[in-house]
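Marked as duplicate of an earlier ticket. Keeping the data here for the record.
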Amino acid sequence: MKKLRNLLEGIEVISYIGNLDIDILGLSANSKVTEEGYVFFAVKGNDLDGHEFIDGAIRNRSNCIICSIIPKKIDPKICYVKVKNMRTAINKISAKFYNYPSKKLRVIAVTGTNGKTSIVYFLYQFLLLINKKAGMLSTIENKIKDKSISSSLTTPDPIEINKLMSEMVNTGMEYCVMEASSHAIDQIRISGSDVYVAIFSNISHDHLDYHKTFLNYINTKKKLFDELSKNSFSIINNDDKRADYIIQNSKSKIINYSVKSISENKAKIIEKTVEGMLVEIDDHKVSLGVIGEFNLYNILSVYVFSKILKIDKIESLKILSKLKPPRGRLEFIKSSNGSIGIVDYAHTPDALKNVLITLGDIKGDNKLISIIGAGGDRDKKKRPEMGRVAEEYSDFVIITSDNPRNENQNDIIDDITKGFKYDNYKVEIDRKKAITNACNNLDNKSILLVAGKGHEDYQIIGEDYIPHNDMEILKNEFK
């Protein structure tokens, strides 16, 4: 419990109505989950304006409204606070309410277009295997000790981040490994000033529906590194052509890794199989239980992190060999007739290309069939590119729905087909039918990639979350 007046210290308050000396028992930016003694933050987002839900928050007994515009209808029992910058206010108030948990943890933040979830998952496993107490915030799930908490966002909102980190502190965690999306950095859900190690995986076109331009997107990622302190570390993929730009203003200690260019930490693939690959890291051979060059980059970033912790090189490599891929990332299943089904989260052109090239390298004489889609109400520019990449690296493509949201599914599919030169594809809007029909036509020389949803167990159609799980459908068909 905190006094409202104390929570507002350091916040640019323009005006207020009511009593600032009330007790605050909780925070929420969702009017449906406010309770008595809660602050409700009326956040204006891209799609929804929290000011429209102030009455709902009050009905749910919230006694303080923090807003950008004080409403015309005033309830005399409620305290209204108008702030200059809502994003800054929600971030600072959340941190203060939960006693600044990020300062009591070693926070490792991973950013980039692709690879965030895998790197976070690998780091989390690595820390546990060296007997460190660690929590995880990821797209797939949030983990605190033995407790798994479902995740709906790549990076939670500031209230949820601080609440989860506070729970980590209270249960004795030392480390928090988290994904840092561009939305989270832009909306000040995470600040570089709270980060011990920041990892940059790569950058390619994505989220331009939000950032508008690619330069804005790059600069948002760069902001995380700009804000790091001189006591922090940056782990940078030197093979990305924008690596130098990302860290040009960073005060942190910078460590590079690469597969193709010169860097302090090098790796290369020696041999590839369906089950894994033999690689060389810093002149030492090690077998990994993951496949794909992009996963070598992901594992290599964890190896660099182990150096920061001063882990013995040979011990570190032994642990790397034990790491498993996260759910929905190149997740394999074999059918009784020998065909292979693979589920992967790849939903950007670059990620899809990486996965298809990886499968192309190990497929031999097998036919590679891809099922792809693209999200509705999201970056439209990447849709034709998804089609182009799928056609170039697959033997056949099935185009289907992938979280169409409030957009017409046929329009999304039409955008994807613009990337095709030939007619080596077909359309099946119903995603479940697309998978089952494909499975019914597989032989022992077939590999089926179902791309786009990975770990997700739903389809977003309109405002509804419809149960759907790519891997469960594959398992049922492969029986």
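See parent ticket for discussion. The mean pLDDT is 93.
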